[in-house]
Amino acid sequence: MSVKTSPRWIYPFANREQILYCIRCEGHLTRDEQVGVLGYTNMAAELAMMLYERYQNKVVILTNGELPEISESRKKILDLYSVEIVTEPIVGILSEGVKQLHGFTFPCHEPVNVKFALVSLGLHRVYNELARQVGARLMDEDQPAEKRHIWINHKGETSIRNLFVVGDAAKREDETVMKQVYTAQEYAVRAVDTIDSRRRRIMREEVLNK
Ligand SMILES: Cc1cc2nc3c(=O)[nH]c(=O)nc-3n(C[C@H](O)[C@H](O)[C@H](O)COP(=O)(O)OP(=O)(O)OC[C@H]3O[C@@H](n4cnc5c(N)ncnc54)[C@H](O)[C@@H]3O)c2cc1C
């Protein structure tokens, strides 16, 4: 399968947890191994640093032909952590069939051996259409509309009273986005408790007013 024409080559390795998506979910698998970070931004640099700091990985950033958009201060730390940045396009993979990923090849740079690769290509989109339609407040002012998270308070309520949002689409001002199944569930419990207490308060008022 051609690396250049289709992203499908990635799926078998993702299914086998060698190409990873989430450092929080799967970072621990990489301990002491050589890891590639597929990306070119400050976020890719941050993930490379975290891998080194948390799991003592030898890390290489693979920009797949993009020019790195990494701040000088981050570049300095990457240098101190011996993180190489390979800017050539990836033209092939080193693997045993679709079973084991061993690394990547490039037009001129020598092949890079990795046991894992972490994808850091940014946010695809936030499902915020419904919230936008009713005029709920959004976060991330510097982002295009389809990438802005929906502002919620600590109960999961948006700026529109009685409209609650939980999960990946929501963001609290006082917390970084968690984007995990269990954090979505935790936010959901708070939201449902709040909705339920409001519902029961109305119920009591109605009983008293009868
Ligand atoms: C590759 C990958 C690996 C992950 N691994 C882990 C992991 O190991 N552990 C972990 O805790 N988390 C993991 N996550 C994160 C986790 O999947 C998410 O945090 C979680 O699914 C968020 O749940 P959600 O309900 O907020 O959103 P979603 O699961 O994205 O569900 C939103 C749903 O709403 C639908 N939708 C959107 N717009 C509309 C509309 N207008 N009308 C109707 N339906 C709509 C979408 O189609 C989708 O089905 C992973 C995520 C990815 C992508």
Features:
3-stranded antiparallel β-sheet, FAD/NAD(P)-binding domain, alpha/beta, 6 helices, 2 domains, 210 residues, binds flavin-adenine dinucleotide, 5-stranded parallel β-sheet, elongated
SSE layout:
Blueprint: H1 10-15, E1 19-20, H2 23-26, E2 34-38, H3 42-55, E3 58-62, H4 72-80, E4 84-86, E5 92-96, E6 100-105, E7 112-113, E8 116-119, H5 129-133, E9 150-152, E10 170-172, H6 181-209
Parallel strand pairs: 1-8, 2-3, 2-8, 3-4, 9-10
Antiparallel strand pairs: 5-6, 6-7
The structure holds flavin-adenine dinucleotide.
The site of flavin-adenine dinucleotide has 13 residues, from helix 5 and helix 6.
What's the helix count? 6
CATH class of the largest domain: Alpha Beta
Number of domains: 2
Shape: elongated
**Helix-and-strand structural type:** alpha/beta
DSSP strand (E) fraction?
A: 15-25%
Helix content: 25-40%
Task: Give me the count of strands.
Answer: 10
